[in-house]
Amino acid sequence: MNDKIYRADLSTLKAWIEDVPENLNSLGGRGLTSAVVASEVEPLCHPLGKNNKLVFAPGLLSGTTAANTGRLSAGGKSPLTKGIKESNSGGTSAQLFARAGIKALIIEGLPENKNEYYGIRIRKDSIEIEKTHLWGKGNFETIEALSKGNEKCGVISIGVAGEMKMAAANISVKDPQGKIRSLGRGGLGAVMGSKHIKYVVVEPSENDQVHVEDPVKFKEAAKKFAKALMAHPVSGEGLPTYGTNILTNVLHEAGGLPTRNFSSGNFEGHDKISGETMHDLIEERGGKVKHGCHAGCVIQCSQVYNDKDGNYLTSGFEYETIWATGANCGISDLDSLAYADNLMDDIGIDTIETGAAVAVAMEAGVLEFGDSKGFVKIVEQDIKNGTPLGRIIGAGAEVTGKVFGVTRVPVVKGQALPAYDPRAVKGIGITYATSPMGADHTAGYSVTSNILSVGGFIDPLKKEGQIELSRNLQIATASLDTAGLCIFTAFAILDNAEAMEAIVDMLNAKSGSSITGDDVMSLGASVLKMEREFNKRAGFNEKDDRLPEFFSLEKCPPHNVIWDFTDEEIDSFWNF
Amino acid sequence: MKIRVKLFAQFRKNRFKEKEIEVSEDTSVSDILKLLEIDEKEAGIIFVNGRHFENKPVLENGDQVSIFPVVGGG
Q: How many angstroms separate the CA of residue A552 from the nearest CA in chain B?
């Protein structure tokens, strides 16, 4: 069985299925979305215009029985960064795509009729564009309506933020509980909205399964891989017990928890929004401490968070969100952050970019730091209804800074920095500066060696070793993103050679290839270079690989450190 | 001398969250772990005054030690 590319052209309202070109055959996930964008999208096109494309692709191992391989990549030219974008997420769609033999879905063109809105319905050997009345609805209502009588279908949708083409709009992916995972960063929801696509539904057919060339070898390797994940203390115990939000206290203690728009590395309200407090509240209120974003996840880092009366408030309430809307805005009311998180899921807007933009607005005095009610109002009334203030915040931190005349605007390539201060965690600063995606912690998570002491220790306050660390991680991550592996598998991969061997064995057993670990790394390196090349053609140069000036001018307490890499040092990242 | 100790995640169970303890001069981070009956292998992250403990193996009066199990996220 050969996988196919499914394509929908909104300019002609035609959709068809085509063979996979030879050069894309060995790619999946991020490698595939980036290769399609690099070869098919005009780098200077307007991200919301007819020449941009939106590409979805499951990873190379997605849909198989291997643990933690259910990631879906989305790619296109980003309206936030104006560069290439890949964002990936859990949920059920990656596995449904892969099992139906859908190598990628490419959505292109713009509809002529400005008043008609569409959905795309796909299953094995079939793709249709259909008109929809769901435009204007929230993500939850959209998923519920599409899943009625069709519970096992996958749904990929946008909320009203995507419809309004906000540069911080994300794309939602239905998870096994019918809730939401997000293709969060870079505004791909706006690209989907520009094409008047409200949703993609993927319907499972009976007997859908991924073809595995050597099932016996695959099973053996998959077993070894799952064992390595379970044996590592982070993926086997730390993440399932306290989730990602354990990092609030870790980063506070390390002095790298960005607070009140990156003005300090300590937040006095850290304990109230910490993973420990959240864990106790979840148990007390009958929520779920462990929860997976896709079937086959053995790590279960996610959770279900209830309100004080035991009613569902939100799920997938992660460290990055809690930081962006909490410490970064000076807010320590966890219940109101959970309420806002659920709202942002429904509206379909990136929680990191939104939190960062509101913090910039707080800096300008639009509202006070710590104003949790004000934060909720901005999301619930302004962003949701597209008021002028909502449009400004929804355009991201950089635009918000420009509109209100703020100089402390934490962005690289137009994308807001996530939850680690680059002055106090220097390795992640190199990733923020150099990633073709803009400031993105997942692109090369140097926090591992800088703070968590996983994969060795490199002092976060010193420059030594950081460039090499970020480079190695960014290359490895591009490979993991291509395979469709969850980034949290990296903890085991960094500390245990058997995990990487198992991945190579699984890739070979699946496709009948005979690649080596080195080949997997070269693949990651080539994906990174391909993405950088697209950005160059889109007008980027090395000067875009820089952190904002204030990081070099203002000391970050408590360690009172500044960002002190020279331009030459940063540029040496690309020597590979 | 006085050392402030902060414990996190499951290390708080049957111990404490934060406490000032009185120890003799030349007490090291390892001594603190032994005192608290925490296995060194289980202590994934240890900060002394917000820095990785290897920067300061021997403690001084007024130091703050923060101890986490092996955790991650992101």
A: 21
* DSSP-derived pairing of the beta strands A154-157 and A171-174: antiparallel
Ranges in chain A annotated CATH 1.10.569.10: 243-421
How much is the pLDDT for A220? 98
Domain formed by A243-421, architecture: Orthogonal Bundle (1.10)
pLDDT score at B73: 82
Q: Is the dihedral of CA A24, A28, A33, A35 positive or negative?
A: negative
CA distance B52 to chain A (A): 7
Using a CB-CB cut-off of 8 Å, the residues of chain B touching A447 are 74
- How far away is chain A from the Cα of B53, in angstroms, using its nearest Cα? 11
What is the reported pLDDT for A320?
A: 97
**Whether residue B74 has pLDDT greater than 90:** no
Counting Cα atoms < 13 Å in the Cβ hemisphere of B19 gives 12
> Do the chains contact at B73 and A245, CB–CB below 8 Å?
yes
On the question of pLDDT at B56 being above 90, the answer is: no
> What are the per-10-residue average pLDDT scores of chain A (576 residues)?
93 98 96 98 98 98 97 98 98 98 98 97 97 98 97 98 98 96 97 98 93 98 97 91 94 98 98 96 94 92 95 95 98 98 98 98 98 98 98 98 98 98 98 98 97 94 98 97 96 94 98 96 97 98 98 98 98 98
Q: Which fold has domain A213-240+423-576?
A: 1.10.599
Check residue A2 and give its pLDDT: 85
Strand A411-412 versus strand B51-52 pairing type? unpaired
One-letter-per-residue 3-state SS of A355-394 = HHHHHHHHHCCCCCCCCHHHHHHHHHHHHHHCCHHHHHHH
- Helix (H/G/I), strand (E/B), else coil: A75: strand
Note the ipTM here: 0.97
Cβ A241–B54 below 8 Å, yes or no?
no
* pLDDT given at position A1: 59
**How many structural domains is chain B composed of?**
1
Rounded to a whole number of angstroms, the distance from the CA of A575 to the nearest CA of chain B is 27
Name every chain B residue with its beta carbon within 8 A of the beta carbon of A251. Answer: none
The shortest CB-CB distance from A253 to any of B50, B54, B73 is to B50
Angle, CA B13 vertex, CA A488 and CA A454 arms, to 5°? 25
Are B72 and A448 a contacting pair at CB < 8 A?
yes
CATH class of the domain at A4-202: alpha beta
Which residues of chain A are within 8 Å of residue B73 when distances are taken between CB atoms?
239, 243-247, 275, 301, 318-319
Q: What is the DSSP string of A243-287?
A: -GGGHHHHHHHHT---BTTTTBS--TTGGGGSHHHHHHHHHHTT-
Flag whether B74 is in a domain.
Answer: no
